TrEMBL record:
Organism name: Nestor notabilis
Gene Ontology cellular component list: membrane
Ranges annotated as spanning the membrane: 25-50, 62-87, 107-128, 149-168
UniProt xrefs under InterPro entries: GPCR_opsins, GPCR_Rhodpsn, GPCR_Rhodpsn_7TM
Annotated Pfam families: 7tm_1
Record membrane topology: Multi-pass membrane protein
Name recorded for this polypeptide: Putative G-protein coupled receptor 88
Main location: membrane
Entry keyword Mitochondrion: no
Entry's Gene Ontology molecular function annotations: G protein-coupled receptor activity
Location within or outside the cell: Membrane
The organism's place on the tree of life at top rank: Eukaryota
Amino acid sequence: MPNASSWSASSPLLLLWEDSSGTRIFLSLLYAVLAISGTLSNVMVIYLVFSFKKLQTTSNAFIVNGCAADLSVCALWMPQEAAVLGLLPPNSSSLRSAEYRLLRGGLLGLGLTVSLASHLLVAFNRYVLITKLPSVYQALYQRRHTGCMIGLSWALALLLVPLLPGLWTPGSA
């Protein structure tokens, strides 16, 4: 087991990883596999919901929203993270640039925030369906209201991403 002095603090998104080329290659491959499998899985869910009329429900609209958020992480963030880990040296100036940190933190923050909001919307949808009268459920979850809820989840995420700690400070990793 490596000692505390061999751990790198250059990436807050990876927990306690060694800065050796073997570990970097392993993590790069892991990110690549997760990116491919996550992208394919989320695209498949979206395709199935849009392909079958029976699956086009309010709950599934929130699930598709979560899949879209996951795609921002799996299809956009993970591949560039895998490429950076596998190709760039650990002390590269590109890794430390403010633009790269902003892109990296913004993509991940946006995807995770919308994904969490989608889970919250699914849970609230199930709560209303179980505890309220069907007329209340149908009035609350009309197509227009559902679209507004999904739009608000993205708007909320876009407003919260700039507040992520360490995203704007020059010295933070």
